[in-house]
# Entry
Amino acid sequence: MANQKKEANLKSVEHPMPSLVNADRVIDELYGNNPNQKIPLEKIQDAEAKASVVPDVITYFRRIPDKSYTKQELIDALNTVVRERGREKEVGLFGVGQANREAEESMGQKQKKA
# Structure
């Protein structure tokens, strides 16, 4: 029991970068070749819940308004919440930087295999 509690604590303080990569990857997969489609927040949150995303990053998906988003609207809304919480240095921003590059590379490799 003590080991389970310790393991849960480790997961909650895990560095969010790999999780941010996964979040960006899920966003890319959801929108595919149609970034202007509007996807309801519930569908976005369902996809994130199934991905390997740490609680710190999932929090941002729970704090944005309940509506449908284009890909850019979603990224902007998520980044607004990250900035409001003053976490851009610790977490990074969605759709930019290393996390986005890694997600794009992963998607490119996945598409080559298909």
